[in-house]
Amino acid sequence: MAILLFFCSGIIFVGCLPELPSLSFLLALLSGAFFCTFFLHKKFPFVLCLLFLLLGFCYGTWAGSRLLENQILPDLVERDLVIEGRVTGLPQENNRRQLFSFAVKQAYSAYDHSASFEHFPDKLNISSYSDLRVKTGEEWRLTVKLKRPRGFVNPGGFDYQASLLRRGVGATGYIRQDENLLLKPQPKFSIDVLRFELQQWLINKSQSTEKGILVALLVGDTSLVDRERWGEMIKTGTNHLIAISGLHLGFFAIVGFFIGNLIGRCVQIFWHKYPSVVSGYIFSVLFTFFYSLIAGFNIPTIRTLIMLVVVQLMLLWRRSFRARDSLLIALVLVLLYDPLAAYDIGFWLSFCAVGMLIFCFSGRIQITRRLGLMNSTRNYLIVFVKSQWVMFIGLLIPLAILIHTSSLLAPPANFVAIPLVTFFVVPCLIISALCHFSFPGLEDFFLHCAEWGMHLVHKWLNYLLIAGTGKLNPLINFNPCAIGVAVLSVFLILLPRGIGNKYIGAAGLILSLLVPLKSLPELQMLVFDVGQGTAVLVRTPNHQLLYDTGPLYTENFDAGSGIIVPYLQSQGIESLDVLVVSHNDQDHIGGLDGVLAATQVKKLWLGEPEKLQRNELGPGAENCHIQKPWQWDQINFQFVSWPIQPNAKANNHSCVLMVEFNGHRILLAGDIEKEVERNLVAQESLAPVDILLAPHHGSHTSSTAEFVARVRPQTVVYSAGFHNQHGHPHADIKARYDSVGAMPLNTALSGALEFTWQDDSLKIIQYRQSARRYWFDVNE
User: What's the pLDDT at 239?
Assistant: First the structure.
């Protein structure tokens, strides 16, 4: 089975490539590999593994090419198009829009309906900002404006573009306010329609605060789970229960088996030779498959379904099998279905978790001296407690590498939450949904039971969080050199007694955690890629300052929690010495709540403190304009001041920060406009700078000729959105900076920008180039 691991490795490796090799080159390489394997595999068996590695690489490349071919052509971008097709999946609502997936049947120009486009994406993500609302299964003719899939590129950040690519989305866009026509109403039945009806039934029926989690458990839609509940379950290590996972499918597999076995016994009354277990296996697969359809086929669901089908087939054929073989077959089939599945954190956690359980329970002898109900219950309880211990220790390294945190509350939290959700909440929820279609009088009772069960889970988790006083979610960051020691230590801990030395393993694990992380350079500045907004992190060896927190995108997603905090955690940063919010515009302050909720902030300085007080989330807000200069690790910081008019625009209240190091200067100018720039130019203290964060993202209302001539930056950074509606940076402003020899860098094109000073030399990293993947746009 080792050859299958090499095959999977080849598929996964393709996802790390900056460009895809040509298919003709791969064909030639594969032909040569087959030729060599034919003559050498008997003498060198390892050659066969290399062949399967290459086969996986070829499959991953072919699949990647197909995904790229499905993207919209550049000459169709930002044009008015008419599309006809069907609404698929579950539409998502937030405070700004409705977002839905659209399967395209036909597409043509809004100004020429005579000919449809031959090469057009099969699937789109469409937003409706108007009153128009669609339902799953409806067929529409829509006038839209589209663009190619694109996401932010930040260190430690989520790759939204890869997520769209994995789902086959070839373009994103929005509905124009032109003629849009409903072609066909919602059909009476389809899986998507059933999921939609169940979602809407539960949204309208339930009045519980746990409604979002119940919707997630029923149909796999997590968009309605509010931030507070997400945070609660992440801090207690129970967030795996929100999505429909292997635990829930395993329960339905057992239920299906017993129902099928009962039907099989009834059949035996008329056909004595019929084996009742056959019906049990069939019904077990049918139950899990149907629940997987309702769940929307996420990675844990697919993995569990494949493993159950493999096991059932082996039992039907009366073949012996090893649990690890079924896991490996599931791994291969998941990657064949989704070649970029490795970009899903759930992929690694799911397979690692099952692998750990197989390693610790499969093939080990369990001695039971006495039988009986009490002893059987005790044995099951011991196995359940041990499984929680195995999951906690076994996933410590994957969690540290992937999300840099692990909850010490996870074992006691899961001890109650897993059985309560799996064996009570989910069954009651499913029964309530079935009663909705058959016995409406009973649906309320079972729905209330499910709500009550989730309420108990919430109370238990909340109690643990209060008892733990929020200190039991430590950040875990391993030095890269210590990861090998940590993995070996966990392996020793999980080995059976008599084989592994658990004390040596525990000592090695503690030692790997104590190895210090790499030392910081003298000065480091990271300009995050947050779209149309600003977020800059300045670090010295012993201090860190965050300047602005980026925008608020939707009611459940902001730059603070979605971009800044993951990076801070990846660097082991639990607190910020200073957080500066230049002014009160949403593209600068939108992520503040997300940062304050997850990070300790010692000082919070605002450009407009009178408009915002956040004492309940962090320190009292102070005015940045009255702060005195200070020094960290030989780095000087100073807010540039000027006479601020009380009735001035919010932009002209921006905190302007000057950072100076060994004669090098950085100026973070916020959104100041011409009036403020004239005041600053009149001050003799304003001097040429090495790096300038362009005022107001490069707007034509800022960067006057006098200001540009005075600061004369060597590098100008535009923190702007890709093809943003404001046209930032303005062409005249770019020309103005070009005239003084400034090197332009734009986060829209470069991704996050990292500036590092060490030994008086400057190193610049553009993450869209340094962390390039083959799906990033080549010509922008």
Answer: 82
Q: Residue 325's Cα: distance from chain center in Å?
A: 29
In a domain, 596, yes or no: yes
| 683 and 547 housed in the same domain | yes
Per-residue confidence (pLDDT) for residue 88, from 0 to 100: 93
CATH code where residue 152 lies: 2.40.50.140
Report which of 19, 771, 10 is spatially closest to residue 335, judged by C-alpha positions: 10
For residue 172, the surrounding DSSP H or E stretch is strand 171-175
Query: Residue 80 carries which side chain, given as an amino acid letter?
Result: D
Total count of domains within the chain:
4
* CA dist list (Å): 573 to 294, 404, 405, 615: 40, 10, 11, 22
Say what the pLDDT of residue 78 is. 86
> Last residue of some domain: 321, 345, 364?
364
pLDDT of residue 363: 63
Q: Domain with 614 in it: what CATH number?
A: 3.60.15.10
- Report the distance separating Cα 233 and Cα 240, nearest Å: 8
On whether both 121 and 165 belong to a single domain, the answer is yes
154 with 265, same domain? no
- pLDDT at position 667 is 96
Whether 242 and 320 map to the same domain: the answer is: yes
Buried b (16+ CB within 10 A) or exposed e, 669-683: bbbbbbbbbebbbee
> What six digits make up the tokens of 406?
């692990």
Q: Are 284 and 253 in contact (CB under 8 A)?
A: yes
Choose the final residue of a domain: 127, 161, 187.
187
Cα separations (Å) of 523 from 391, 719, 750, 756? 40, 20, 21, 6
Same domain, 156 and 178: yes
Task: Give the closest residue to 217 by CA, choosing from 238, 232, 235.
Answer: 238
Structure tokens at 565: 């905090």
The answer to whether residue 381 is domain-embedded is: no
Q: Are residues 713 and 592 located together in one domain of the fold?
A: yes
Asked if residue 127 and residue 21 are part of one domain, the reply reads no
- Is the residue at 12 inside a domain? yes
CB contact at 8 A, 285 and 254: no
On whether both 146 and 278 belong to a single domain, the answer is no
Q: Residue 6 belongs to what domain range?
A: 2-69
Q: Between the CA of residue 486 and those of 306, 504, 527, what are the distances in Å?
A: 31, 11, 33
In a domain, 227, yes or no: no
Judging by DSSP bridges, how do beta strands 544-547 and 536-539 pair with one another? antiparallel
pLDDT at res. 615: 45
Spatial contact of 597 and 632, defined as CB atoms under 8 Å apart: no
Whole-angstrom distance, CA of residue 103 vs CA of residue 110? 18
Mean pLDDT by groups of 10 residues along the chain of 780 residues? 88 93 84 75 74 91 92 90 93 87 93 83 93 93 93 91 91 88 90 90 90 89 84 83 73 85 82 76 86 79 79 72 81 90 86 85 60 64 80 85 80 89 90 88 92 93 77 72 88 79 85 83 95 96 95 88 92 92 93 90 90 57 91 93 83 94 93 92 85 95 94 95 90 95 95 92 93 77
d(CA 746, CA 716): 8
